[in-house]
Design brief:
Layout lengths: L6 E4 L17 H8 L4 E4 L1 H4 L11 E3 L2 H8 L3 E4 L6 E5 L5 H18 L3 E6 L6 E5 L5 E5 L2 H13 L5 E7 L7 H7 L8 H15 L3 E6 L23 H9 L3 E4 H15 L17 E5 L6 H6 L6 E5 L18 E3 L2 H12 L25
Parallel strand pairs: 1-2, 1-12, 2-3, 5-6, 5-9, 9-10, 12-13, 13-14
Antiparallel strand pairs: 4-11, 7-8
Helix pairs in contact: 4-8, 5-7
């Protein structure tokens, strides 16, 4: 039987204290496992980034959060690539020694992984990142000089012709704070994550180009009680390697009307049918979404849930600071306890089996009211 490969979106919202995916790279095992049973896994840097740790997943698409929202809304398609030219932006507020560490990390990724990191720019003034915690408990932040960031990005795009951008901004050292101590213990919210999202969103929204961010921080003192969930961020001087690895083959972001025009032009020129590999992946290809059970209020899930053909799988064990379950929003969802159970549901979907048929409680067949018009 010839079946279409399964396409799944895996979301763990940034900066909401997720029990799995709330620290550096601790959702990677879930992503790796899901990728084994699907044709295409679409996910975002918060899931795949692990500071100096990362894992190559050939069928995973590394899509920044704002781009994922635009994809889910049907505005952008995702065009897979073999490799991107990557430009690197360093915040002018980073001390010289710490800047050197970032450049050396980029050189290491070029030499050992073969990533095509071509050009580096320092912003014309410090970005001055500030961190915030909202009343809901989620982290967010601001940058005082966004124009400086955008000028650097524009120069890399227009002069160096880069196809993806990595940003390293100097973040405030928060040693001794309660939020940092909780995070190092594997509890609470990542205090940096929300501000990181602001930085990448700004570039993606303005230039429609893949982007991801790594914070620059001074090394923390050793902590014998460090949680394994937080340990990835404590093994070196930089968080940049995972970002460069992810951006190396992040899909290009294609406005769908343009993609359709390009496809028609190619058909006319070649007089041949255009294959699925030549066309961008659109939201119509999505078969299922996996998301924490209490974090269903984001733009991507709201848009994707409007399609009856998409199975929404919510994971109860992945608790967050949010209190937005699917039922409060009128979203029809299948709740499971763990990612292991979510993988079982995806296996059933891949086999063309209704997950309900694998339970002991199959509801009776529904009867629709007679729609015969009266005369």
């Amino acid at each position: 039987m010839n079946q279409r490969p399964l396409t799944v979106v895996l979301i763990v919202p940034t900066g909401v204290g997720a029990a799995i995916g709330g620290c550096a790279g601790d959702a990677l095992p879930a992503a790796r496992a899901i990728a084994q049973i699907v044709g295409t896994l679409i996910t975002h840097p918060n899931v795949l980034n692990g500071a100096q740790l990362y894992w190559p997943i050939p069928n995973a698409l590394y899509v920044e959060g704002y781009a994922l929202d635009k994809f889910a809304a049907g505005c952008w398609g995702l065009q897979p690539v073999h490799q991107n030219r990557i430009g690197l932006i360093l915040d002018a507020g980073i001390e010289p020694d710490l800047q050197l560490r970032q450049r050396q990390a980029a050189d290491a990724v070029r030499a050992t992984l073969g990533a095509n990191v071509t050009d580096c720019m320092v912003t014309d003034r410090p970005l001055q990142v500030e961190l915030r915690i909202s009343e809901s408990g989620a982290s967010w932040g601001t940058i005082a000089h966004p124009g400086s960031l955008l000028r650097a990005a524009e120069k890399l795009i227009t002069q160096a012709k880069v196809e993806a951008i990595a940003v390293v901004a100097r973040f405030p050292d928060d040693q001794g704070s309660i939020a940092l101590e909780n995070y190092r213990r594997g509890k609470g919210v990542d205090p940096l994550a929300g501000a990181e999202a602001v930085i990448s969103h700004l570039i993606v929204r303005t230039f429609q180009i893949p982007c991801a961010h790594a914070p620059a921080l001074l090394p923390l003192p050793l902590d014998p009680h460090l949680s394994p969930r937080s340990a990835a961020e404590e093994i070196g001087y930089t968080f940049l390697p995972c970002v460069l690895a992810g951006l190396s083959n992040a899909p290009q972001l294609v406005a769908l009307p343009n993609a359709e025009k390009q496809a028609n032009k190619a058909r006319k020129h070649a007089r041949l049918p255009i294959t699925d590999y030549q066309l961008p992946i659109t939201k119509d290809r999505v078969d299922a979404v996996v998301i924490p059970a209490t974090a269903c209020g984001g733009s991507a899930i709201l848009n994707l849930s409007q399609r009856s053909s998409v199975t929404i799988i919510t994971v109860k064990d992945n608790k967050t600071q949010m209190q937005v379950p699917a039922e409060k929003l009128g979203i029809a969802a299948l709740q499971v306890n763990s990612y292991l159970e979510a993988i079982g549901v995806l296996v059933a979907l891949k086999a063309g089996i209704s997950p309900a048929s694998l339970t002991g409680n199959i509801s009776p067949l529904r009867y629709l009211p007679d729609s015969t018009p009266e005369f």
